[in-house]
Request: fold
Amino acid sequence: MKISVIGAGYLGATHAICMASLGHEVVVVDVDSEKIALLKGGTLPFFEPGLSELLSSVLETKTISFTTDITAISECAINFLCIGTPQNREGIAADLSALERAFDSVLSVAKSDSIIVGKSTVPVGTAQRLARELSNKKSDTTLNWNPEFLREGHAVADTFEPNRIVIGALAPSDARVLADFYRSFSPNTPQFITNFPTAELVKVAANAFLATKISFINAMSEIADATGADVTVLADAIGIDDRIGRKFLGAGIGFGGGCLPKDIRAFLARADELGLGESLAFLQEFDLINQRARSRAVAVALKELGNPKGKKVAILGAAFKPESDDVRDSPALEIAQTLAALGADVVVNDPRALASAAEKVPDLTYEESITQTLQGAELTMLLTEWNEYRSLDPEKVIGLVKTPTLFDGRNVLDVGKWQTAGWKLLALGRSL
Reply:
C-alpha cells in the first residue's frame, strides 16, 4: 500500500521506517530540509535502538522516500499525521499550530477516498473539530484518530507488536481500512474502535495514570526520608499486590521527556477549558512532586558537599531515560545545571545524549569517557539508569574518585556490593 507520513520526528520517522520495512511504499514529508537530508543519507536525527539498521535496509529496497514537497502524497491511500504538539510557550496548553498547518496541507493535496490518520497527542475535542473542517472542504476523505503508545528505547518493538490499537472515527465503518492495515502485520493485537473523544482520552489518561504511579511513590519517598522507612522495600511490598503492580513504582528523581510532563499540563489546561479543572486538580500536585524530587536530589548533593564551589561532581546520565538521547525536560540535566550554577565543577557523561545535551545546555562540561568523568570526583551522581552505569565494578572505579560517595538517583544499584567496596551511598527515600 502507498502511504505517507507527515512529520519526520521521533514518532513519524519510526512509524515510517517500520512500515516501509513491511513492504509498504512510504513517502515521508517534513518542512525541515536538514532533517530530510539526514534521513535521505541514512542518518537518524535521534537515537533509537534497532531503527538505524532498519533505515539502511529500507533505503536499499527503496520502499521509502523523504521530501519537503507535500504534493508527493497525492497518490497515497493513508496519510499519517505525526506532528509534535509541544507545550505552548505562553501557558501549559498544547500548541497545535504545526499540526493544524500540516492538516491543511494534507487536505489540499490528498486524493479522493484517502484516509487521514492523526497520531499526535491532542486535547480532547481536536479530532472532532478537524473532522468538521474536513467535511466542509473534502467530504470524500475520512479522518481517523489513532494515538501512539511508543516507549522511547522500545519503539521498534512497540510499532511491530503494539499492546493495543485504538482508532477513533465518526462511525465504526470509517475505521475498517485502518483496522485491516494494522491487522495485516499484528493480527493478535487487541483493537478498540471508538469515537474521537475516547481515542484522544485513552492516550492522555494512560500518561496521567503512569505519572500518578511515579508521583505517588516519590511522595512516599519523602515520607520515608522523614521517618526512616525504605521506599524500595515499600514499593516491593505494595507492588506485589496485583491490583497495584510493581511497574512504575521506582522512586527517584522523577520523570521527564517530551511526553509525560507536557501531556499532563495540556490535560490540565483542557480540563479548565471544559470547566472541569477540579476533576484533574490532583495532577497539579503530581507535577509539583516531580519537580520537588529534582530539588531534593540537589539538596542531598549540597548536604554532602557543603560549599559546592570548585568541587567536582560527576554526573552519570543526561538523557531523561536510558536507551534514548532525548534530554527534553530531563531531571538529570536540570540537576546538573543547578549544581553548576551553584559553583560546582560539573562533568556530565552519557552513552548517547551528549550531543543533544550540549545543544540544549552548552555551558556544562561533557565527557565521553566514564573514567575521565569519575577522575577526581568528590561526588558521583547516577541520574539515568543506563546499563553501562549499573554494571560498573565499584572496586575498580573507587580508585578514580577523590571521595567515594555516590548518589543513586534511580535506586537501581546493588547497595551491599557498593558499600562493601568502600563507597558511601546516598538516595532518596532510603536510609543507607
